[in-house]
Amino acid sequence: MFAAGAIKVAIVEDQREIRDGLSYLLQRSEGCELLGSYGSLEEALPCLSQALPDVLLLDIGLPGMNGIEGTRLLKARWPELVVVTLTVYDDDDRVFAALCAGASGYLLKNTTPARLIESLREAVNGGAPISPEIASKVLRLFREIRPPARADYHLTPHELRLLKLLVEGHSYKTAAAELKSCVNTVSFHMKNIYRKLEVHSKSEAVAKVLQQRLI
Q: What is the pLDDT of residues 96-118, one digit of tens each?
């Protein structure tokens, strides 16, 4: 029986020791409920069809379907599912591919337990938790690759600033604080951003920003 208001989390991680450690952490973290723990996406998919979690903690280097291919499939099947990548990989190609596939966050496996639980809450509340090392890589990619001239969605400077904050890992709440605004105002601007980009979620917006180098 799940506690009212608890975040339902599922794990896909092929290394049993890590999977068991994550399961132990989630089972003992207030406000979180472990919905399922799986060694591969092939094992997880039938179970996800029966009971969808609020957030899926997903490894990239999996046997069979990898986490990047899996994220693409999961977001196509369940657009509302929040996927947070947890991996040892920090190379540009995998970071870029995972975020473009629709991952709402990208965390390294050296993330502390407290920060991991905080990141899951951020992701469910519309944030984009990203390990500091990864955030710096994403921003460097933005600086190195100029936006194509044709990518013009008439985003205002304020909207671009908000998108940049989300890519850096801010939640709506912390982005509002950075912008000296309130969460309701941030939500209002995000609705305008969704309309302009023709997307329906924060992860789709971030993916489009990355794909088309809008920042």
A: 888 888 898 899 999 999 999 99
The whole-model pTM stands at: 0.67
SS3 assignment for the chain: CCCCCCEEEEEECCCHHHHHHHHHHHHCCCCEEEEEEECCHHHHHHHHHHCCCCEEEECCCCCCCCHHHHHHHHHHHCCCCEEEEEECCCCHHHHHHHHHHCCCEEEECCCCHHHHHHHHHHHHCCCCCECHHHHHHHHHHHHHCCCCCCCCCCCCHHHHHHHHHHHCCCCHHHHHHHCCCCHHHHHHHHHHHHHHHCCCCHHHHHHHHHHHCCC
| Whether the predicted pLDDT of 214 surpasses 90 | no
Same domain, 32 and 120: yes
- Residues 100 and 202 reside in one and the same domain: no
CATH of the domain at 208: 1.10.10.10
Indicate the number of domains in the chain. 2
